[in-house]
Automatic annotation (TrEMBL):
The lineage of its organism: Eukaryota, Viridiplantae, Streptophyta, Embryophyta, Tracheophyta. SUPFAM superfamilies: Plant invertase/pectin methylesterase inhibitor. It comes from the Eukaryota. Coiled coil: none annotated. This is Pectinesterase inhibitor domain-containing protein. Residues 30-163 form the Pectinesterase inhibitor domain. CDD domains: PMEI-like_2 (cd15800). Pfam families: PMEI (PF04043). It comes from Microthlaspi erraticum. GO terms for molecular function: enzyme inhibitor activity.
Length: 168
């Protein structure tokens, strides 16, 4: 009888260990799935994934993306400042990128206050600012690095808006 009890006890321990292992693995798979899924909702997942590494919370992912977008917008603004004199398209971009920096800072403050509607308003304004910049180049039939950056910023801004819709 003691042998059977020992066997049952060992069997129960192995079964419990297996259950815990399956639970842990499924949790990691679910976490990886959520990370992949959070960017799969966006129009440009390849631009989303590097910005939200290891983040599955939509609020945190949106905040991280806003921060990255703000940094990249400031870099584009610095470049536009170098060439704005004598080039109307770049001067327009300089102005709209300045507006975008303000809108992104306001969006970041809104997300901290959990004001999703306010955040979406500011993000929409920033995406519009990038679009105005791109349109200035299209109208003048110019292509340069400032325009290329504005196109990427508009895509990331669009992703950011999509991520913000996942916040509950």
């Amino acid at each position: 009888m003691a042998g059977r009890d020992t066997f049952q006890l060992r069997f129960a321990a192995v079964a419990a260990s297996a259950a815990v292992l399956v639970f842990l693995i499924s949790g990691e798979v679910a976490e990886a799935s959520r990370m992949m899924n959070i960017c799969s909702h966006t129009a440009y997942p390849s631009l989303c994934r590097p910005l939200v590494k290891r983040i599955s919370n939509p609020r945190k992912a949106t905040h991280r993306t806003i921060q990255a977008l703000e940094v990249q917008t400031r870099l584009a603004l610095t470049e536009a400042a170098l060439f704005k004199d004598g080039n109307n398209a770049i001067a327009t971009c300089y102005s709209t990128l300045s507006d975008a920096v303000f809108n992104l800072a306001s969006a970041r403050k809104s997300i901290r206050k959990r004001d999703v509607m306010g955040m979406n308003t500011f993000l929409t304004a920033a995406v519009s600012d990038y679009g105005t910049c791109v349109d200035a180049f299209i109208e003048t039939k110019q292509v340069n690095t400032v325009q290329n950056k504005a196109v990427d910023l508009r895509k990331i801004g669009s992703n950011c808006l999509t991520l913000s819709t996942l916040i509950s």
